[in-house]
Amino acid sequence: MRVKLDQEEWESCEQATLGEVLVEISDRAHARSRLVTRLRLDQREITDRDIDEGFLSEPVSRYERLTALSQSVRDIEHDAWIAAGRYAKFLHKEGLTLLETWRAGIPREQAMNEWLGRLADYLEFIEGRSASCQAGRPPSLSFWIQELLAARERSDVVLTADLLEYEILPRLEG
Asked: Would you write out the chain's pLDDT as a tens digit for each of its 174 residues?
């Protein structure tokens, strides 16, 4: 089977398994500080869902070509931050819609729960797993989310809306 990683090409051993070839591709990419981001086996795009024990143990002799593309870790991180910025704008827009209902005295609890779930995903990316405030820094987004959750727990609709409008949403505009 012919193997290609970016611009580098080689012939794999006929007795090799797909798993062994994928390890070699990964090792070559890693040696150049890159991560494999796309795989194509003959005409079929391969995703992480395709990669299981059966797939990895298949002999490469069944296939003609495996093509892999890689990206530098820095480029992947850069793209992720751009996507996170777009996601923050999406969350901000959704939050404004949610705020209108809370200000009108019609708290939509289920919609708020769903929005907070998406916000938690965003927060995990931007702040990592540590959501604690650091000394000397203004309170983080996670601090204000905790305050909002406490206000909701007390059924304080006005404070919930205030925290959303004045503390959380402005931090998503950034």
From this structure: 999 999 999 999 999 999 999 999 999 999 999 999 999 999 999 999 999 999 999 999 999 999 999 999 999 999 999 999 999 999 999 999 999 998 988 888 999 999 999 999 999 888 764 444 444 455 688 899 999 999 999 989 899 999 999 999 999 986
- According to DSSP, residue 129 is labeled T
Q: Helices 141-153 and 109-127, interaxial angle, to 10°?
A: 160
| Predicted TM-score (pTM) of this structure | 0.66
Torsion of CA 56, 57, 60, 61, to 10 degrees: -160
- Sign of the dihedral defined by the CA atoms of residues 158, 159, 160, 162, in that order: positive
CA 131 from chain center: how many Å? 18
Give the tokens for residue 56: 């990895």
User: What total number of domains does the chain contain?
Assistant: 2
Residues 6 or more apart in contact with residue 125 via CB below 8 angstroms: 80, 84
Residues 19, 62: one domain?
yes
Range of the domain at 17: 2-72
Q: Which two tokens stand for residue 105?
A: 């005295």
Note whether 61 and 29 are same-domain residues: yes
The residues that bridge with 59 in the sheet, in sequence order, are 17
